[in-house]
Amino acid sequence: MNHSFFQPEKQYGEDLPIFDQEWEAIAFYYDYRQSQIEELNELCQFFNISLTYTRESLEELENLYFQSIQELLLADWNLPIEEFEKMISVYLIDCVIARHEDAEWVVKPYPYKDGAYTLGFRRHRKSWHTMNACDGLYLRPKEDRPLLSLFDSLVRS
C-alpha cells in the first residue's frame, strides 16, 4: 500500500538552489537581491518612479503593479507576474530594513534538503523566509492597498 502524502516542505525544497558552502549561498542570494532591484529600477524608470525606499515609493510601485495587470503591460514587457512580484518583494523588504536597524536579510540552511538554503528576513526574534512575499497581491482589491498593508504590518511587527 502506498502511503505517500503531500509533503510541502519537500516540494518547496525541490526548487531551492544547492550549495557546497554557506558562503556560496550568501553570495548567491546577495547577487539575486541586487539583480532584482536593478531590474525593478530599470522598469520603474520608464514610469518616472524613483526607488527611494520610502512608503511613498511603495505606493507608486503598487499603483504600477495594478496598472500593469489592468492594462496587460506584463505581456508587453514579457514579464511573468511572479517575477514582477519577486522584484517587488525584494524592494519591500529592503524598505523595511531601511527603517529598522534590527532588521536584516538572512540566509539559512533548509532543514529538509541537504545543501539547500533559503533567503529570509529577520527582525527582532522573528524570521520570515520566502522568495515572494507579494505572491498574489492582485487577488486583493486595489482599494485595500495590499502592498502598503503588508509594508505597514512588517514595519509594526
Structural class: mainly alpha
Main β-sheet, in a few words?
3 strands, antiparallel
Q: Tell me the strand order in the biggest sheet.
A: 1-2-3
Shape: globular
Low-confidence stretches: none
Order of helices and strands: HHHHHEEEH
Radius of gyration: 17 Å
* Helix content, binned percent: 40-55%
How many helices? The count is 6
**What number of domains?**
1
End-to-end separation in angstroms reads: 46 Å
User: What proportion strand?
Assistant: 5-15%
Number of separate strands: 3
The oligomeric state of the chains shown is single chain
* Mean pLDDT level: 91
What is the element layout, followed by pairings?
Layout: H1 8-14, H2 22-45, H3 55-70, H4 73-77, H5 81-99, E1 103-109, E2 117-123, E3 126-129, H6 146-156
Antiparallel strand pairs: 1-2, 2-3
Helix pairs in contact: 2-5, 3-5, 3-6, 5-6
Descriptive notes:
This protein has 157 residues and is mainly alpha-helical. It is built from six helices and three strands; from the N terminus they run H-H-H-H-H-E-E-E-H. The protein has helices at residues 8-14, 22-45, 55-70, 73-77, 81-99, 146-156; strands spanning 103-109, 117-123, 126-129. A three-stranded antiparallel sheet has the order 1-2-3. A hairpin with a 7-residue loop joins strand 1 and strand 2. Helix 2 packs across helix 5 (81-99) and helix 3 (55-70) packs antiparallel against helix 5. The chain starts with 7 loop residues before the first helix and ends with a helix.
